[in-house]
Design a protein that fits this description.
Shape: globular
Largest sheet: none
Number of domains: 1
Structural class: mainly alpha
Distance between the termini: 55 Å
Helix content: over 70%
Oligomer: single chain
Radius of gyration: 23 Å
Number of strands: 0
Number of helices: 8
């Protein structure tokens, strides 16, 4: 009986020790990512970061992040909007809830779905592959070689990727939100200008100053999370015993942070 108790206490102690070590590793990883983000914020507001090749690198990464996927993303979002708007409008009219159709469509599409989908699209197509590429550059010694030549890797390689990811999320969200509002008007009022005054009043009632502020903050935080976390994880050392790769860890952290941001925005909008 006594030996079983000692064995149980030993297993419990090992479990608590492993839990504490994992928590320390998790906390250290988040701290390193946040410290990298703080450095990048300072560099982003420094004019010297855009002198010489820095400005060209930022423009190249902005085009790589937003240019190739702009047409395809907006087309797919437009088709998705048409289907969803049609379903909501027809259902609302069928049940005598036509006065709520516009409100539901704008709140679901513009305020919630579009920023989230834009952030995930940029993450999958640019930020996560870019973080993987940056991790390979660091492991190959290319970043250290740049540092020895007097070139800051944060300015030359990291900052352009983060700025490009943020710009891509904000631009795709803005374009898609505009298209969603236009398609919503066409679905409700058709191809006529007579409904513009009532449509503007209805949308104005939805986009109160508080809702606009929460929407802007949510989109900006989505953009920052999507742009920072993959490259931030690429710059930190992953323990060899860790089961997840740097890409997977960055993706999990990004999704967890985006979930928290979305929950906070829902609380701010509806409670």
């Amino acid at each position: 009986m006594l030996s079983e108790t000692h064995s149980l206490l030993g297993r419990l102690a090992r479990w608590l020790r492993a839990l504490g070590q994992n928590f320390l590793l998790w906390s250290r990883g988040w701290w390193q990512v946040l410290f990298t983000g703080a450095q990048l914020v300072v560099l982003a507001f420094s004019p010297s970061s855009y002198h010489g090749q820095g400005g060209g690198a930022v423009l190249r990464h902005i085009y790589a992040a937003a240019g190739p996927g702009l047409a395809g993303f907006t087309t797919l979002m437009a088709l998705f909007n048409v289907v969803l708007i049609r379903i909501v409008v027809v259902t609302a009219f069928a049940y005598g809830l036509s006065q709520y159709a516009l409100n539901m469509v704008v709140r679901v599409l513009v305020l919630e779905l579009v920023p989230l989908v834009a952030a995930l699209f940029v993450a999958i197509n640019y930020s996560v592959p870019g973080g993987s590429e940056l991790y390979k550059l660091r492991k190959s010694g290319a970043l250290e070689s740049m540092r020895r030549r007097g070139v800051s890797p944060l300015e030359r390689e990291v900052l352009p990727r983060v700025l490009a990811g943020m710009f891509a999320v904000i631009m795709l969200a803005a374009v898609s939100c505009t298209i969603s509002l236009i398609l919503t008007y066409l679905a409700v009022h058709g191809f006529t200008l007579a409904g513009i005054p009532s449509y503007n009043r209805a949308v104005g009632h939805i986009f109160t100053p508080v809702v606009v502020l929460i929407f802007v903050l949510k989109t900006g935080l989505f953009a920052f999370a999507v742009a920072l976390l993959p490259v931030g994880n690429a710059l930190r050392d992953i323990p060899r015993r860790a089961r997840a790769s740097v890409e997977l860890q960055g993706l999990v952290q990004m999704c967890a942070l985006m979930l928290l941001i979305e929950i906070a925005s829902l609380v701010g909008n509806y409670y």
